[in-house]
Amino acid sequence: MKFATKAIHAGVFPDPSTGAIMTPIYQTTTYVQKAPGDHKGYEYSRTQNPTRTVLQENLAALENGSYGLCFASGLAATDAVMKTLSPGDEVLSTNDLYGGTYRLFTKVFQKYGLDFNFVDMSNANEVGQYISDRTKLIWIETPTNPMMHIIDIEAIVGLAKSKGIKVAVDNTFATPFLQRPLDLGADMVMHSVTKYLGGHSDVIMGALVLNDSQWAEQLEFLQNASGAVSGPQDCFLALRGIKTLHLRMQRHSENAAAVAHFLRKYPRVDQVFWPGFEDHPNHVIAKKQMSDFGGMISFTLKGDDIEEAKHLMTKFKYFQLAESLGGVESLCGHPASMTHASIPREERIKSGLLDSLIRMSVGIEDIDDLVADLEQALS
């Protein structure tokens, strides 16, 4: 089954009682049992829910994985992964990282005895020097948020496997349409389903996909025991969104390419960060592990004036100033004061996240309108 067909059909079957082609929203907390323990596979909706089951199977199929688990948010999914570690364990992660993940690592789990080491992973050959005998997990994003760095998944996996270290990849920016980390040897994929998978800015959700049965069993226990599960209405919306994922990602990628090339020619713009440029530091790796370059772009203004950047974002008409990304509408954001404000400024600057950096989630509107919007705002 090819990807577009998977997106629409994998794990999804007509409702057996009515023939409904859309998976019903099973808005129930509990399920009647014939006798204690004698039930139809469902007991209580924190533990299992039929709508969530279908979504989990669909997501697992899209990533070519065996097990899918859905959570109340991307951070709830990440939280569950960290709970599989023990005090004294170390997590090696990239120094260009979503601010919420950095906050969860440093402000929540560090005080419970986990150690986190944030390093530049652009050159995978240099990552090995940071691995210690306490390193149990390598957590990466690629493309990274918001600097659009590309990390060589296969190379990182090669370093980790010889030492018995697991590799988890936040695949939110790429989605399984553009990149499938499990096929490249990673142990786990994490998604903020809120973004491209849902695709319509109307659902908050996270997901994990993996092949390891023991790790999956541990995470299923945590999903139930900690209770940060996604509700049936949200699962229904995510299933609806995924049916057009391939179509949306094609248009996101096409529009982002046009926007990136326009920005690079504009006099007020300093640097444009987009992995599709041939002179992007890891463009060759991006071409190897991705089928296209996605809908995310970041850029800086000459002079690195934070107030100028903030003022510019108020001038856009179609690029709405808002948190989040991956919806059908175009959004812009200021990472230094919004999504990445929890990262200390000195750490942001070290990773290249300047005060004037603007992150753009390029939507699926008509590209002529988007370019005209950029031109009127910049001029």
Properties at a glance:
single chain, 379 residues, alpha/beta, Aspartate Aminotransferase, domain 2, Aspartate Aminotransferase, domain 1, 2 domains, 7-stranded mixed sheet, 5-stranded mixed sheet, 15% strand
Explain what the structure shows.
This protein is α/β, with parallel strands linked by helices and 379 residues long. The protein has 2 domains: 3-242, 3-Layer(aba) Sandwich (Aspartate Aminotransferase, domain 2), CATH 3.40.640; 245-378, Aspartate Aminotransferase, domain 1 (Alpha-Beta Complex). It is 35% helix and 15% strand. The chain contains 13 helices and 12 strands. It has a 7-stranded mixed beta sheet with strand order 1-7-6-5-4-2-3, with helices on both faces. A 5-stranded mixed beta sheet has the order 8-9-12-11-10. Helix 4 links the parallel strand 2 (90-94) and strand 3. The longest helix is centred in the last third of the chain and has 20 residues, at 245-264. The mean pLDDT is 96.
Please render the helix and strand layout as text.
Elements: H1 3-9, H2 50-62, E1 67-71, H3 74-82, E2 90-94, H4 99-109, E3 115-119, E4 135-141, H5 153-161, E5 166-170, H6 175-178, E6 188-192, E7 206-210, H7 213-226, H8 232-242, H9 245-264, E8 269-273, H10 283-289, E9 296-301, H11 306-313, E10 320-321, E11 331-333, H12 345-350, E12 358-361, H13 367-378
SSE arrangement, N to C? HHEHEHEEHEHEEHHHEHEHEEHEH
As for the number of domains, it is 2
Q: Name the CATH class of the largest domain.
A: Alpha Beta
Shape: globular
Task: Give the CATH H-level superfamily of the largest domain.
Answer: Type I PLP-dependent aspartate aminotransferase-like (Major domain)
The share of residues in helices is 25-40%
Q: What is the CATH topology assignment of the largest domain? A: Aspartate Aminotransferase, domain 2
Q: Tell me about the largest β-sheet.
A: 7 strands, mixed
Distance between the termini: 48 Å
CATH architecture of the largest domain: 3-Layer(aba) Sandwich
Radius of gyration: 21 Å
Our estimate of the beta-strand percent is 15-25%
- Low-pLDDT stretches are none
What is the number of E strands?
A: 12
What's the average pLDDT?
96
Please count the helical segments: 13
Structural category is alpha/beta
Strand order of the largest sheet: 1-7-6-5-4-2-3
